[in-house]
Amino acid sequence: MSEEQTIGPRSRVPRHPTYPKLRQEIAGVDVASLAREFGTPTFVYDGARIVERIEDLRAFDVVRYAQKACSNIAILDLCRRHGALVDATSAGELHRALAAGYEAAGHPPPIVYTADVFDAESLDMVIANGVHVNCGSPDMIDQYGRRVPGGEITLRLNPGFGHGHSRKTNTGGEQSKHGVWHEQLTEAVERARRYDLTVSGLHVHIGSGSDLEHLSGVCGALERLVHEAGESIGTISAGGGLPIPYREDEAYMDVEAYYALWDETRKRLERALGHRLTLEIEPGRYLTAESGYLVTEIRAVKTMGSNTFYLVDAGFNNLARPVLYGAYHPISIASTSGDGSDRSTREVIVGGALCESGDIFTQEEGGVVRAQTLLEAHVGDLLVIECAGAYGSVMGSNYNSKPMAAEVLVRDRTPYLVRSRQTLDQLISNETIPELG
């Protein structure tokens, strides 16, 4: 196999990624200068990488960004400007999409609300703005149909199986809360008819970080379900879950092969139904993960028995994936004294600033602490957690009353502050002390 593969109509990438031990720049901007200008911890996004990943998927009729991966409105605006439509799972995500310039309605729908429930605010907002709904439960059909009889919906289906890089990211099978159970499709279509709702599309998503073998299994499942749903289907969605390699021995997914599987499925269905079908894909992680870097400062170097710890000013309040899933992230060092090229490596455990034993960036699922091979570093050096652009800032919290990190988008070697660091006053701005006498 060659070292490079074509994975899209306009993009060539290496078969395997290369993650450096020493990183002095991000998207052409000096890491140390980013830290001086914006402070730490800060998320930095390489906008060009996001555009590249959208282009990888251009063969699909619709690339619909699952904004839960990284929902800063500057990222949404970038996706919109480069032709990606958007998915929303809450009133807040609807608000973000509208603020980023997406139209509420159109064909294909610029925004689709995909969820397993409506809360009252989301349902009101969907109806007020005419946003298309992708129903993930039978009760959603009733709740929408009572308010918008004669409308149009799509259905998110649980095909009875799932897969993901962690049990917690598996979105299919009978232990998952997601989607209308595949055996209830006929019942769901009949329920829609009670309100004169047209079921115009089907969507299946089995999990985040799945591999090509499991993702390709969705094709057969959806093909069978389209036949069951009937001739009203005009759109099929491959869902999301496209993986990215977090380790150098992991390969990039063959997106061309994945598209070919779906295109063959689409063509068979078109022949059977007698009309054209729109083929959507719904990437989240795939578009943004590699674009993101969490820049943090080393504040202590500690020896604990046989272990060396680098303790940084970020924590799982900024990046929760390691503590939630045991997720691996490549880590690099940016030297603030000399160019760092002469430094040796050592086995290091990277910990955060929180008063919490689980605040370790180098751990496996189940909380097993492990070491990672990093460059020798000192207090004041910068540590860069790579591939942090998906499920990073969006899962941030104020645990230990830590302010939310800043976010910076780099375009054409120019960094733009797209979210300012939360201040201490903002931490308590919506809290009050009652007058108890």
Task: Describe the secondary-structure layout.
Layout: E1 4-8, E2 11-14, E3 25-26, E4 29-30, H1 31-38, E5 42-46, H2 47-56, E6 62-66, H3 73-81, E7 85-88, H4 91-99, E8 111-115, H5 120-129, E9 132-135, H6 138-147, E10 152-158, E11 180-181, H7 185-194, E12 198-204, H8 212-229, E13 235-237, H9 255-273, E14 278-281, H10 285-288, E15 292-304, E16 307-312, H11 321-325, E17 331-334, E18 345-351, E19 363-364, E20 368-369, E21 372-375, E22 382-385, E23 406-411, E24 414-419, H12 424-427
Parallel strand pairs: 5-23, 6-7, 6-14, 7-8, 8-9, 9-10, 10-11, 10-12, 12-13, 13-14, 16-18
Antiparallel strand pairs: 1-2, 3-4, 5-15, 15-16, 15-22, 17-22, 18-21, 19-20, 23-24
Helix pairs in contact: 6-7, 8-9
